[in-house]
C-alpha cells in the first residue's frame, strides 16, 4: 500500500531516539516498500534539538520516509497514529525517591494514555520502552479505556537479546542457533531470563550448558545487570541496543515471530502461569499480524517458580504504588 504508516515516537530527541528514528525511517521496522510517516513528541525545551534531528533525517534522503511532524502536544502528535513507541520518560535523578519517579512518570503516561485513547487510529499498537516500562504501560493502558488492552506492551526484548548473546557465547554457538528463550516478568533487576525451555542447535539449552551454578550466579545476573554494566563502560545508558530491541519487538509484533520460536514481550497477564491477572508481565509469546498469544503449557520447576513469583511480586508493589497515587 502507498498510504504511509504513521509511527509516533516519544522522547524523540533523546539518545534512544537518535538511533531509533533513523532505523524506522530507513525501513528496518516496516520494510523497504512501506512508506512511513514519523510523528515525534518531545517536551517543549527539547523541540529545538529535535528540529536538528529532523534536519538529519531530511539529509539521509530515505526513500521510505514520507514525512515528519514534531510537537509537544500528545493530542496533536498521536493523531491517527498506527503505532506508538513510548520511549520518553522521566529519568531518576539525584535525590529522587522511587515514589517520586513513579509519580513523575505517572503524569506522563496518564496523559499519553488519554491522548492515544482520543486520537490514535483504530488499529493502534503501543510499545513502551521508557522506564519503569511495565508499570508505565499499565498506567497508559488503564487511562485508555477504549483501546483494547492487548494493544499495550512493554519492552523486554533488549533483555531477551542480551540473554541470546550471553548464551551463544557460553555455548560456542551463534544467536541463530538459539530458540525459545524467555524473559519472565519485570524489565528490572528482578527479571528472570529462563533457558530451561530454550534450545541450542535443537538441544535443551540448560543441558547443553550443564552448569546450574553458571545459570544462577553468572548468566541471570549478567543479563539482569547488563544495563548498569553498559553505563559503567560507556558513561551513558544503552541506546543503540535499546533502539534495536524496540524495532525487533514492534516488527515481530506486526509481522510475526519466527516459525518454531517465540519472543519475550511484556503483555497484560490473563493469569497464565499463576501470575496475577492485569499485571504487564513479560511472557514467552508468539505474534502474528499485530496480535500475540502467550505460549502455554511450559513446565515450570521450583527454581523457575520462585524467580517468576519474585518478579511478579515487584510488579504488584509497583501497581499498588501507582494505585495509591491515584494514577490508575
Ligand atoms: P534520554 O534522557 O536520552 O531521552 C529521553 C527523552 O524523553 C528526552 O529527550 C526527554 O526530553 C524526553 N521526554 C521526557 N518527558 C517526555 C514527555 N512527557 N513527552 C515526550 N518526551 C519526553 O533517555 P534515553 O536514553 O533515550 O532512554 C529513554 C527511556 O528508555 C528511559 O526511561 C530509559 O530508562 C529507558 N530504557 C529502557 C530500556 C528497556 O529495555 N525497556 C533499555 C534502555 C533504556 O534504559
From TrEMBL:
Highest taxon listed in the record's lineage: Bacteria
Keyword tags: NAD, Oxidoreductase, Tricarboxylic acid cycle
Positions contributing to substrate binding: 92, 98, 131, 162
Active site: 187
Lactate/malate dehydrogenase N-terminal domain segment(s): 5-149
PROSITE patterns in the record: MDH
Binding site for NAD(+): 11-17, 105, 112, 129-131
Top EC category: oxidoreductase
GO molecular-function terms, A-Z: L-malate dehydrogenase (NAD+) activity
Residues of the Lactate/malate dehydrogenase C-terminal domain: 156-320
EC number: 1.1.1.37
InterPro entries from the UniProt entry: L-lactate/malate_DH (IPR001557), Lactate/malate_DH_C (IPR022383), Lactate/malate_DH_N (IPR001236), Malate_DH_AS (IPR001252), Malate_DH_type2 (IPR010945)
Biological process terms in GO annotation: malate metabolic process; tricarboxylic acid cycle
Catalysed transformations (reactions): (S)-malate + NAD(+) = oxaloacetate + NADH + H(+)
Protein family according to the UniProt entry: Belongs to the LDH/MDH superfamily. MDH type 2 family.
Function, in words: Catalyzes the reversible oxidation of malate to oxaloacetate.
Name of this protein: Malate dehydrogenase
Phylogenetic lineage: Bacteria, Bacillati, Actinomycetota, Actinomycetes, Propionibacteriales
The gene coding this protein: mdh
Amino acid at each position: 500500500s502507498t498510504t504511509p504508516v504513521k509511527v509516533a515516537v516519544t522522547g524523540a530527541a533523546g539518545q534512544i531516539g537518535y538511533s531509533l528514528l533513523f532505523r524506522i525511517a530507513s525501513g528496518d521496522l516496516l520494510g523497504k516498500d512501506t512508506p512511513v510517516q514519523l510523528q515525534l513528541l518531545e517536551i517543549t525545551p527539547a523541540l529545538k534539538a529535535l528540529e536538528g534531528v529532523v534536519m538529519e533525517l531530511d539529509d539521509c534522503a530515505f526513500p521510505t520516509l514520507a514525512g515528519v511532524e514534531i510537537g509537544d502536544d500528545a493530542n496533536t502528535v498521536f493523531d491517527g497514529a498506527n503505532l506508538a513507541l513510548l520511549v520518553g520518560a522521566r529519568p531518576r535523578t539525584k535525590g529522587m525517591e522511587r515514589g517520586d519517579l513513579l509519580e513523575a512518570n505517572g503524569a506522563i503516561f496518564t496523559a499519553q494514555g488519554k491522548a492515544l485513547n482520543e486520537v490514535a487510529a483504530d488499529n493502534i499498537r503501543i510499545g513502551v520502552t521508557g522506564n519503569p516500562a511495565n508499570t508505565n504501560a499499565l498506567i497508559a493502558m488503564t487511562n485508555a479505556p477504549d483501546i483494547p488492552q492487548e494493544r499495550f506492551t512493554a519492552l523486554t526484548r533488549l533483555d531477551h537479546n542480551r540473554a541470546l548473546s550471553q548464551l551463544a557465547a557460553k555455548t560456542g554457538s551463534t544467536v541463530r542457533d538459539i530458540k525459545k528463550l524467555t524473559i519472565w516478568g519485570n524489565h528490572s533487576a528482578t527479571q528472570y531470563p529462563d533457558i530451561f525451555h530454550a534450545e541450542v542447535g535443537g538441544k535443551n539449552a540448560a543441558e547443553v550448558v550443564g552448569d546450574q551454578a553458571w545459570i544462577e550466579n553468572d548468566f541471570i545476573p549478567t543479563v539482569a545487570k547488563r544495563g548498569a554494566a553498559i553505563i559503567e563502560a560507556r558513561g551513558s545508558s544503552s541506546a543503540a541496543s535499546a533502539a534495536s530491541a524496540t524495532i525487533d519487538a514492534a516488527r515481530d509484533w506486526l509481522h510475526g515471530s519466527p516459525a518454531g520460536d517465540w519472543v519475550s514481550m511484556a503483555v497484560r497477564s490473563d493469569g497464565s502461569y499463576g501470575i496475577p491477572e492485569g499485571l504487564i508481565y513479560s511472557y514467552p509469546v508468539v505474534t502474528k499480524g499485530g496480535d500475540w498469544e502467550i505460549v502455554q503449557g511450559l513446565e515450570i520447576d521450583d527454581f523457575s517458580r520462585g524467580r517468576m513469583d519474585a518478579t511478579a511480586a515487584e510488579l504488584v508493589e509497583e501497581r499498588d504504588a501507582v494505585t495509591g497515587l491515584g494514577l490508575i
